[in-house]
Amino acid sequence: MAYPEPLEALIAAFERYPGIGRRSAERLAFHALRDREARGLAQAIERAYKQTVRCSVCANVAVKDPCRICADPERDAGLIAVVEEPRHVEAMERSGAFKGRYHVLMGAWNAAEGTEPEHLSIRALVDRLAQGGVRELILATDPDAEGEATGLLVAEAVESAIHPAPLITRLARGVPAGSSLEYLHRGILEDALEARRPLGPPRGRS
After folding, report:
1. pTM of the model
2. Torsion of CA 34, 36, 38, 40, to 10 degrees
3. Which residue, 170, 186, 201, sits at the end of a domain?
4. Cβ atoms of 173 and 192 closer than 8 Å
5. 99-132 pLDDT, tens digit each
6. Quick check: is 116 in a domain?
7. Are 141 and 157 in the same domain?
8. Residue 176 placed within a domain
9. How far apart, in whole angstroms, are the C-alpha atoms of residue 66 and residue 58?
10. CA 113 to chain centre
11. Quick check: helix, strand or coil at residue 43?
12. Contact yes or no for 70/81 (Cβ under 8 A)
């Protein structure tokens, strides 16, 4: 037995989001119907949709164009970190360790989920680099299969279109501080072993 059409439409709307299957969409839909604050959620979504823009420089989500980072003269415009999503910009900003600027791809290359290279803002990145002034491009995509493929795609696009291309680097990966080896993913251990470095000069030498 099918649900009433308005409820089916709500379920279908939830189901379109990444990682949300039919069962999860049904639970979210019924929760929204029971929740007295659901109308506030709908209004918040509408407000966010109307009052945010995509930065014409870095493609991040912002309330002004250009965004606050691209408009900040104190940020290093010659250093660009390429990230998958706006939330990754916020993660790097919380660290306080990065003083350059960003380019947001708005996704990762994942054909299984319908995300193809043309859906990403790679062309905009190449056009941005063609203007000159960028000395280093940091690939800060996720350390998973999709992130690796996306980073390689970006590097190939830049190197084939920009001559000379800026230095292209990848975020270092290794064993997280405070972690236990027995719980680490195999890929993390492989990266850590490949990127190992000397602790210091051998004992007995100055």
Report:
1. 0.79
2. 180
3. 170
4. yes
5. 999 999 999 998 777 778 888 999 999 999 999 9
6. yes
7. yes
8. no
9. 8
10. 16
11. helix
12. no
Token pair recorded at residue 1: 């037995």
Q: What confidence score (pLDDT) does residue 198 get? A: 76
Going by C-alpha positions, the residue among 42, 118, 122 that lies closest to residue 82 is 122
β-strand partners of 110: 115
Let me know whether 89 and 157 are in one domain.
yes
Place of tokens 């706006």: 86
Mean pLDDT over each residue of the chain, to the nearest integer: 89
Please tell me whether residues 149 and 161 are part of one structural domain: yes
Structural domain harbouring 34: 5-51
Q: Minimum mean pLDDT among 57-66, 155-164, 192-201: which range?
A: 192-201
State yes or no: cis peptide before 164, omega within 30 of 0.
yes
Q: Which residue has the tokens 């049904």?
A: 26
A 10 A CB-CB count for 37 gives 9
C-alpha pair distances (Å), 186 with each of 32, 104, 149, 171, 180? 40, 28, 18, 18, 13
Check if the beta carbon of residue 88 is closer than 8 Å to that of residue 77.
no
Q: How far apart are CA 104 and CA 85, in angstroms?
A: 6
